[in-house]
TrEMBL record:
Belongs to the metallo-dependent hydrolases superfamily. ATZ/TRZ family. Keywords: Hydrolase. Residues 452-472 are annotated as: Disordered. The keyword Hydrolase applies. It comes from the Bacteria. Gene3D superfamilies: Metal-dependent hydrolases, Urease, subunit C, domain 1. One of its GO terms (molecular function) is hydrolase activity, acting on carbon-nitrogen (but not peptide) bonds. It comes from Marinobacterium nitratireducens. The keyword Hydrolase applies. This is S-adenosylhomocysteine deaminase. Residues 67-415 form the Amidohydrolase-related domain. InterPro entries: Amidohydro-rel (IPR006680), Metal-dep_hydrolase_composite (IPR011059), Metal_Hydrolase (IPR032466), MTA/SAH_deaminase (IPR050287).
Amino acid sequence: MHKHQNSEPFEADDLILAPEWMLLPQGPVRQQALRVADGRFADVGSLCELQARYPELEVRRIEKQLLMPGFVDTHHHLSQTFGKSLVFGEPSEIFRRVWVPMESGLDEELLYLTTKLAALESLRGGFTTVCDAGTRAETGLKSMAVACEEAGLRTVLGLVCNDRRGDEVLAPGPILTKAEQHLADWESNPMVKPSLAIPIPEIATDDMLRAVSALCAEAGTVFQTHANEHLVAVERSLERYGVRPVEHLHRAGALGPQALLAHATLLTPGEIAMIRDSDTAVSYNPVASAWKGNAVAQAELMRTFGVRLGLGTDGTRSDAFRLMDFAEAAQRFAHGLAVGDSSCGGGWSWLEMATREGARVLGLETGEIAVGKAADFLLVDLQVPEMTPSWDLSWELVRLANRDQIQAVYVGGRLRLWQGWPVDWDARALMQQVDELARAVVERAPIQKIHPFSQAHREARGPDSDASTSGH
């Protein structure tokens, strides 16, 4: 493997960092430098300007690399990493058959382990911030927060607050008291931002939807819910409430600048107008659409009409470059091809959605390289065959870049990963521990798989089976 001048790990404080390329809000630029102090970008400008302002500081030249903001995952499920490929090939609403049964069996130790593994995967994939949608585990969220802090991942941590369990309606008082306590517990934590969540609108009363959303508005944080993700959910909402999920949220008074809708793939023009007019945000989850969805969100249409959007993995795989690639490709296949749109938002729009727009959706001071912002950034190796020669770096990052090009991950100005591995804790020991414990969790959970594992599927079809049969 080729070696760069800066092939050894280094901390970012007390240096002037001078990469060959830097991704600034206006796009990729050269001949720029920055200074990091107290976990934030203290100064950004030309190398000459920074050398003149800080003659006492060493200049760290970073050849053949891009310094860019860390990616922001606006929708994740940190407590689901024990499952992973259990849901491959499964039809929609896997939360009912796989995730709820599995997460319900997690105690605090297991919740810590699954979260720390998820945090490691996210950081390896270039994400420095992740928004967790809330776990179904009955244990507290402290172990999740500890896991993220130890790994070095900036986290928006959701607390589930629904008051409907089947036909039973729970008393609102204890739920709202717990919600208020959760918001207070993490109010001043620099790495953990509290959030409240109701997984889907139908499992809460209108009063609870409105109250939880209002608490988030008052606290300056996000209210999370999955909305209009699957056709079955839309139809179930129509049958039970006479309105679609986004219409339900609108009627309950739960939309607004504090609201973050995950997926939103099946929207009527009227629902798009409700989202836009209320300044509600949307997390576009293209990999989830490909793996288990009924549709692809009209992300470019919504963005054009002023809806705030970020990109989310939905816990599918924590690879930011492949997420951007999917975001553009899914938009093109689902919406662009039919109307002859060959640019489909352009490379820059997906880069912005994956970084600073995602941070704005979450209300965080990160996602861009600018003075005063949190110093969450990546060093990306550009000296690879896939990006040689380079003509349009923004497009190339979306379509050609790979996770293995990430040389370093910094969060709050602190080096957390170097060439894919943590610098201050043993990731391989964690992986061994997870491997020993996760199988028992899955085996005892009442998981219902509809599609068999790949080898069983292949054997069931047999060598002479019709290639068109499903194997179910």
